[in-house]
Specification:
Layout: H1 2-52, H2 54-57, E1 62-65, E2 69-75, E3 78-79, E4 88-91, E5 97-103, E6 107-117, E7 123-134, H3 137-142, H4 147-164, H5 168-173, H6 175-190, E8 195-206, H7 209-247, H8 251-264, H9 278-287
Helix pairs in contact: 4-6
């Protein structure tokens, strides 16, 4: 039965592969356990040596860091369990430990002007400022190689992506909301590095010269139109007020007001003022269709 032989051979191969894989895992686990035991032995021997020679080696095993700093200790290539050391005085093993100091103060950096294309295809040049601080020194040291450069690059790309999803009107009128969205995006992306983004501010928006001229012309035209509308509304209100005032005057009072208006007009060489009887004006007005 060639088919049965083939199936049996496949099963045998799978069984052998499973055994080899199990042995390899056991060997890796066993090797890892051996190295852990060796590291523990070296640590104990080093501690005993320090205790025996304490007056001479004590000054080598002490380190002081500032209030705003924390120390991440690598012992034989592995981070020492527990929170970062500091501030103040702490002890370490010089020939087994490597210390990396992390600054916990708030860092501020400027994002250089970025060429951004808005959602309505308007080119902009935008710069911003970002404030952040390290909240987990162990993650800051182990998760990212150059945290400052990584945060700076992330801020640049986030600025472009955030502004590219909005129109020019939104960017000009909703700067606070856009900065808040950018802050949330930066926090979501950088919290795995042990970073807390505290604040993001858009500093300046630079428009092309031609676009600024168009916007200025549009704003000037809108202001002129608004001024003409206001003047027309004022004339309408003034004419209505005059009509109401004239309707309440008697013929004698109307005639006196007419003479007073004529006397207030200054006659010059180019302007000649003369009075007409009001009866003639009434006659002309009555003959109009």
């Amino acid at each position: 039965m060639p088919g049965g032989n083939r199936v049996g051979a496949v099963c045998a191969d799978e069984f052998v592969a499973a055994i080899v894989k199990l042995h390899s895992k056991h060997g890796e686990r066993r090797g890892g356990g051996v190295w852990e035991v060796l590291g523990a032995v070296l640590t104990l021997l080093s501690a005993a040596f320090i205790l025996l020679t304490f007056p001479l080696t004590g000054w080598m095993c002490a380190k002081v860091i500032q209030e705003y700093e924390r120390a991440v200790i690598f012992r034989l290539g592995r981070v020492v369990k527990g929170r970062a050391k500091g501030p103040g005085l702490f002890w370490f093993i010089p020939w087994l430990d490597v210390i990396q100091t992390v600054d916990l103060r708030t860092v501020c950096f400027n994002i250089r002007p970025q060429e951004v294309l808005t959602a309505d295809w308007v080119p902009l040049k935008v710069d911003a400022v970002v404030f952040y601080r390290v909240v987990d020194p162990s993650l800051w040291v182990t998760r990212v190689k150059n945290g400052y450069q990584a945060t700076h690059t992330l801020a640049q790309t986030t600025l472009r992506a955030t502004l590219g999803a909005h129109t020019l009107t939104d960017v000009l009128t909703q700067r606070t909301g856009i900065a808040k969205r950018m802050e949330e995006a930066l926090y979501t992306a950088s919290r795995l590095w042990g970073v807390l983004v505290e604040r993001v501010e858009l500093k300046d928006l630079t428009l092309p010269v031609s676009l600024r001229r168009c916007m200025a012309s549009e704003a000037e035209a809108a202001r002129r139109a608004r001024a003409k509308m206001i003047a027309a509304e004022g004339e309408v209100k003034a004419s209505r007020a005059l009509q109401e005032a004239a309707s309440g005057l008697s013929p004698v009072a109307f005639h006196l007001r007419y003479l007073q208006s004529l006397s207030s007009v200054q006659s010059t060489a180019s302007i000649v003022v003369f009075s007409l009887p009001t009866e003639l004006l009434d006659m002309f007005l009555s003959h109009q269709p």
